[in-house]
Amino acid sequence: MITRKSKREIEQMQKAGDLLVAIHKEIAKMIKPGISTLEIDTFVDKYLEEHGATPEQKGYNGYPYATCASINDEICHGFPREDKLQDGDIVTIDMVVNLNGGLADSAWTYAVGNVDEKGKRLMEVTKTSLYKGMEQARAGNRIGDIGHAIQTYAEGEGFSVVRDFTGHGIGPTIHEDPHIPHFGLPNKGLRLKEGMVITIEPMINEGSWESKMDSNNWTARTIDKGRSAQYEHTLVITKGEPIIITDQDK
């Protein structure tokens, strides 16, 4: 069932979003060669506890961590680990914050030290594709308009769009209807309505869009070892530009 959020619900989700943004800004300072994603996960767990919040994905279908940490060819749902990040890696940190019942979800890809030009371009195109999709996220448009904008831009830049994982509605639980594919045809799919809260989270690959699953049954990675980047915002649909709950540039 698709729900449209009340003003009170949106305000509570915004508070969760503000906290999530603060964490991402702290992570940005921490990312460097030699740190482990398990250290980052421990930091996030403690930060949330100190601010009266909880990591919503911890325990979700048995997932054991506060964050997902996906490195290089890992598309999503990478497990935090003790291995140290290396100079030239890219790493996506994804998390869902629950603050007094309000949820916010955001992923961000970080450069570790000196990333090569192709890696930098992958990150830039992925981030831009998120904003291309968000331009279409307004009441009266259809879900296909979002995916089409992302796909045409990313593929036009020589990259591929992951098909196996999508954005989604959010609140009161972590994954709600509708699904938000990052590919598709314009003027197709469910019509967006004011008050809906969704995530847009394109995962863009250097090579093939296809994925394979690790033995942990969580982590997806590219089939050809090409790198993958992801940027994600939680946003509220309005008649005009969406309200970005997880905006880092306010």
UniProtKB/TrEMBL annotation:
Signal peptide: none annotated. It catalyses: Release of N-terminal amino acids, preferentially methionine, from peptides and arylamides. A divalent metal cation 1 binds at D94, D105, E232. Pfam families: Peptidase_M24 (PF00557). GO terms for cellular component: cytosol. InterPro entries: Creatinase/aminopeptidase-like (IPR036005), Pept_M24 (IPR000994), Pept_M24_MAP (IPR001714), Pept_M24A_MAP1 (IPR002467). Binds 2 divalent metal cations per subunit. Has a high-affinity and a low affinity metal-binding site. The true nature of the physiological cofactor is under debate. The enzyme is active with cobalt, zinc, manganese or divalent iron ions. Most likely, methionine aminopeptidases function as mononuclear Fe(2+)-metalloproteases under physiological conditions, and the catalytically relevant metal-binding site has been assigned to the histidine-containing high-affinity site. NCBIfam families: met_pdase_I (TIGR00500). Belongs to the peptidase M24A family. Methionine aminopeptidase type 1 subfamily. Removes the N-terminal methionine from nascent proteins. The N-terminal methionine is often cleaved when the second residue in the primary sequence is small and uncharged (Met-Ala-, Cys, Gly, Pro, Ser, Thr, or Val). Requires deformylation of the N(alpha)-formylated initiator methionine before it can be hydrolyzed. This is Methionine aminopeptidase. It comes from Ornithinibacillus halophilus.
